[in-house]
Amino acid sequence: MKTRTKVIIAIGSNRNQEENVLKAHEHLSCMFKNSLFGPRMWTEPIGLENSDKFLNQVMLGETICSKKSVLAALRSVEQRCGRRIRGPYRKVDVPLDLDLLLYGDEKLHESEWERDYIQSSISYLEEKDAKRDRKYLR
User: Fold this and answer.
1) What is the pLDDT of residue 39?
2) 49 with 56: CB under 8 angstroms?
3) Distance CA 91, CA 66 (A)
4) Is the distance from CB of 104 to CB of 6 less than 8 angstroms?
5) Could you tell me which residue ranges the 7,8-dihydro-6-hydroxymethylpterin-pyrophosphokinase domain spans (predicted)?
6) Distance (Å, rounded) from C-alpha 85 to C-alpha 99?
C-alpha cells in the first residue's frame, strides 16, 4: 500500500468567484482523499491593479501522487476553469489559482503562509482534522 502524503492547497479566484471556487472544490474533492475545506474568505487583491476582490479557500487533504503529479493536476484544473498561462490579462484576470502550499513536510509559496486568511484557515482545518481523527479512535 502506498503512503499518503498530506497536502494543503490555497484556492483563489477574482472572476466568477463563487462559481470557480465551487468548481475547484468539486475537482479537489475527487482528487484528494480525506479532503477538508476551510471557510471561504473575500480578500483584496495583492499586487494587482484593476482587479476584483478574491474569493479564497484552503483545502487540506491526502494523496499518493508525487508532488510533480499534484502540481500538473492543479494546473490542469486551473486551465479547465479558464486560467490563461500567457497573454496580457493572465495576472489580472484569475478565474482560478490553485497553489500547493504543503506537500508532506515541504512548505511551498512561503510568502503566502504569512497571509492572515491562510493562517486562520490552516488553524481551522487542523482543528477540524484533529476532531475527525478523535472520532475514529472512539
Assistant:
1) 97
2) no
3) 27
4) yes
5) 8-119
6) 14
Alpha-carbon distance of 76 to 23, in angstroms, equals: 13
Spell out the residues 6+ positions from residue 82 whose beta carbon is closer than 8 angstroms to its own: 15, 20, 95, 96
Does residue 96 contact residue 13 with C-beta atoms inside 8 Å? Answer: yes
Q: For the chain, how far is it from start to end, CA to CA, in angstroms?
A: 25
pTM of this structure: 0.89
Q: Which residues pair with 42 in a beta bridge?
A: 55
In this prediction, residues 113-133 reach a mean pLDDT of: 91
- The model's pLDDT over 17-27, given as tens digits with 9 standing for 90+, comes to 999 999 999 99
Looking at domain 5-136, does it have CATH number 3.40.1190.20?
A: no
Residue 30 CB neighbour total at 10 angstroms:
8
**Boundaries of every domain in the chain:** 5-136
DSSP 78-89: HHHTT--SSSTT
Q: Quote the pLDDT of residue 88.
A: 52
